[in-house]
From TrEMBL:
Protein known as: Type-4 uracil-DNA glycosylase
Organism name: Achromobacter deleyi
UniProt keywords, alphabetically: 4Fe-4S, DNA damage, DNA repair, Hydrolase, Iron, Iron-sulfur, Metal-binding
GO molecular function (one): uracil DNA N-glycosylase activity
Family of this protein: Belongs to the uracil-DNA glycosylase (UDG) superfamily. Type 4 (UDGa) family.
Gene Ontology BP term (one): DNA repair
Reaction(s) this enzyme catalyzes, per UniProt: Hydrolyzes single-stranded DNA or mismatched double-stranded DNA and polynucleotides, releasing free uracil
Pfam family, any one: UDG
Biased composition, class Low complexity, residue ranges: 102-123
InterPro entries: UDG_Type-4/5, Ura-DNA_glyco_family4, Uracil-DNA_glycosylase-like, Uracil-DNA_glycosylase-like_sf
Residue ranges of domain Uracil-DNA glycosylase-like in the record: 179-331
Entry EC no(s): 3.2.2.27
């Protein structure tokens, strides 16, 4: 007969902290740590009674211990003792706030970079936008177009209107508006283009070198601005840098010149320079094609005035060879 021997009870298996944590999570910590009794194997002593004992049978199937079952069901652990989604030994489960650590609802404040300027945090409603400047309070001169007052003005009233004119942008850079100067009654009206630097300083037309040349030319044919010649310009204010007058500037100033012609009633008009000739005659022809002949200008009152075109004295100072043609123009005007 076989005599089974009782095996001593084995001690509880040893576990590491990670396994203990998982056993606690699964609720099997006590089952795992309970001592497991190992059954003694059966040993065949003799075969005297084959009918009673028989041949040695195969050993009964061995049932896996609870520890082995748990180990097979537990998730695999890497060599470092960590796994995706599994807390490490000694660490609290995810989502558990720790002492000294901010919670997810209150993100930690970010310390400013070294050397970065401090930014003040403003509380309360956003600031209101600054009010826009009122165009009426601008210090720039108000553009006042030439109106009906010019058509009915006397010569003195017209002078005051020119001195106070703000019809175009030239009024912003002028020192003096140049109305004109000359003798009355007027036999000749000399019309230039625009005041220069000296004219802007003194407020008188054709002063400086060009004015001296014009006085000499008039004196050569027996005329004088102090006696019977009135001198004026199409533009009453100096263009910056003595540039050419712009069409809008000519249009703004032309009513003053037309009123001067109506009041002075000259016998003839001597036009000096291309811009003055084009503005007075209403043409874009060159001065070379306009000079040497007599033109007729019709006033608003229906009166026709002879017009002679010649070179500007400033151009004659730059091109002295043209003085001979200018002399011919003066003689043409004197023979009329």
């Amino acid at each position: 007969m076989t005599a089974p021997n009782a095996a001593p009870a084995s001690s509880a298996p040893r576990v590491n902290p990670l396994q203990r944590l998982w056993l606690r999570e699964l609720g099997m910590e006590r089952l795992w740590l309970r001592p497991v009794a190992t059954p003694a194997p059966q040993v065949v002593v003799s075969k005297t009674d084959s009918a009673a004992v028989g041949q040695a049978s195969s050993p009964p199937p061995v049932t896996a211990s609870p520890a082995a079952q748990i180990a097979a069901a537990a998730p695999a652990v890497s060599a470092e003792g960590s796994q995706a989604g599994m807390p490490q030994a000694g660490m609290p489960p995810a989502g558990t706030p720790q002492a000294g650590m901010p919670s997810a609802a209150t993100p930690p404040a970010v310390a400013p970079r070294a050397g970065a300027p401090a930014v003040a945090v403003r509380s309360g409603p956003p600031p209101r936008p600054a009010p826009k400047a009122d165009p009426a309070s601008d210090t720039a001169p108000v553009r006042v177009p030439v109106g009906e007052a010019v058509k009915n003005a006397t010569l003195d009233e017209l002078r005051e209107q020119v001195l106070a004119c703000t019809a175009c942008g030239l009024c912003e850079g002028r020192r003096h508006a140049v109305f004109g100067h000359g003798g009355q009654p007027t036999r000749w009206l000399v019309v230039g283009e625009a005041p220069g630097e000296q004219e802007d300083r003194q407020g008188q037309p054709f002063v400086g070198r060009s004015g001296q040349l014009l006085d000499a030319m008039l004196s050569a044919v027996g005329m004088s601005r102090e006696r019977d010649v009135f001198i004026a310009n199409v533009i009453k204010c100096r263009p910056p840098g003595n540039r050419n007058p712009k069409p809008e500037e000519i249009a703004a100033c032309s009513p003053y010149l037309m009123r001067q012609i109506a009041l002075l009633k000259p016998e003839r008009i001597l036009v000096l320079g291309r811009f003055a000739a084009q503005a007075l005659l209403g043409t874009d022809a060159t001065i070379g094609s306009l000079r040497g002949r007599i033109h007729q200008m019709k006033t608003d009152e229906g009166r026709e005035i002879p017009v002679i075109v010649s070179y500007h004295p400033a151009y004659l100072l730059r091109s002295p060879v043209e003085k001979a043609r200018a002399w011919q123009d003066l003689k043409l005007a004197a023979r009329m």
